């Protein structure tokens, strides 16, 4: 399972329909939070994501609409008896931010908060996947993230294995793991019965940014690109000034990268009642586009 839950999809200002930025990724039961605007924990409750299995928070930058939900969330988890450490990743100042968070002193946590300061190009290796850190272009130091799954083993051809004289059982597993085996004096190689390895899934989250090479390169053939789509094309000058992206710019990047699905988020409060301008600007350029709504969920399937 690889599921994305959009907890907050608004721009700098919250609206009645959109909370500030917060995206939950559930990969095989492990919860990862990308940005954590105010009210994120309430959105987690509404979406019934759970929070005690949260392993990490990944911060893209330190504008208030991306971090103000962290103090309340870490306190709530402590009240609920959390004892497992929580790791907060982010750009320059993440250690100082976390130290200040803990040093405020109005509550004592029952678990440890670890911090990891990241730079573009860093790779966090995990079991079955990696988190790649992307260079982005915003008005303050900022980064984006790509969750890249490891390649999967190729399909095992059981019929072919039996035809080659391999008895069902442990030898099947050895062949599937890439090992060669011997049966009745004959060497059988893994490649004889196992197809080529298959690509894992990739999710890219741009955070707040102008269209940039770092996000483009990470998004090549990605399954899901979650990109800053703050403004419609007619607000291009404002997008440049505030270091955000228009919907059309995000769509052009998605098209160039050959992504499978584009989701626009960080929607300006200008479009509280009507996101049609955002959607239409992107749709003209890239077919498979969605404008995110709060509490929207997307399941990311394998493509092969």
Topology:
Blueprint (H helix, E strand, L loop, with lengths): L1 E7 L13 E6 L2 E7 L3 H8 L6 E5 L11 H10 L6 E5 L3 H10 L9 E5 L5 E4 L2 E7 L7 E7 L8 H6 L6 H7 L4 E3 L2 E3 L13 E4 L7 H6 L5 E5 L7 H7 L4 H11 L4 E4 L10 H8 L5 E3 L5 E3 L5
Parallel strand pairs: 3-4, 4-5, 5-6, 12-13, 13-14, 14-15
Antiparallel strand pairs: 1-2, 1-16, 2-3, 7-8, 8-9, 9-12, 10-11
Helix pairs in contact: 8-9
General description of the model:
This protein is an alpha/beta fold and 304 residues long. It has 2 domains: 2-152 and 198-299, Metallo-beta-lactamase, Chain A (4-Layer Sandwich); 158-192, no CATH class. It has 9 helices and 16 strands. A 7-stranded mixed β-sheet has the order 6-5-4-3-2-1-16, covered by helices on one side. α6 (213-218) links the parallel β12 (202-205) and β13. α8 (247-257) packs parallel to α9 (276-283). The chain is globular and about 70 Å long. It starts with a strand and ends in a 5-residue tail after the last strand. The model has no long low-confidence stretch (mean pLDDT 94).
């Amino acid at each position: 399972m690889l599921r994305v839950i959009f907890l907050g999809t608004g721009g700098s200002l919250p609206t009645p329909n959109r909370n500030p930025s917060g995206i939950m990724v559930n990969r095989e039961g492990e919860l990862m939070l990308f940005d954590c605007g105010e009210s994120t924990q309430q959105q987690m409750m509404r979406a019934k994501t759970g929070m005690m299995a949260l392993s990490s928070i990944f911060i893209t930058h330190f504008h208030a609409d991306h971090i103000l939900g962290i103090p309340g969330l870490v306190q709530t988890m402590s009240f609920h008896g959390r004892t497992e450490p929580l790791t907060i990743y982010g750009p320059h100042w993440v250690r100082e931010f976390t130290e200040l968070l803990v040093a405020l002193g109005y509550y004592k946590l029952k678990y440890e908060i670890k911090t990891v300061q990241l730079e573009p190009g860093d790779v966090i290796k995990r079991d079955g996947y990696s988190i790649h850190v992307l260079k982005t272009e915003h008005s303050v130091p900022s980064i984006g993230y790509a969750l890249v799954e490891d390649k999967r083993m190729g399909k095992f051809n059981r019929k072919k294995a039996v035809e080659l004289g391999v008895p069902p059982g442990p030898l099947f597993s050895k062949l599937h793991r890439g090992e060669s085996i011997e049966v009745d004096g004959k060497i059988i190689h893994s490649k004889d019965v196992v197809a080529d390895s298959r690509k894992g899934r990739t999710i890219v989250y741009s955070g707040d940014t102008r269209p940039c090479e770092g996000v483009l390169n990470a998004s090549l053939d990605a399954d899901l690109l979650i990109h800053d789509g703050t403004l419609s094309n007619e607000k291009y000058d404002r997008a440049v000034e505030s270091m955000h992206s228009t919907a059309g710019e995000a769509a052009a990047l998605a098209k160039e990268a050959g992504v499978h699905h584009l989701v626009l988020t960080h929607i300006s409060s200008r479009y509280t009642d009507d996101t049609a301008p955002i959607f239409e600007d992107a749709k003209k350029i890239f077919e498979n586009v969605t404008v995110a709504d709060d509490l929207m969920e997307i399941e990311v399937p394998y493509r092969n």
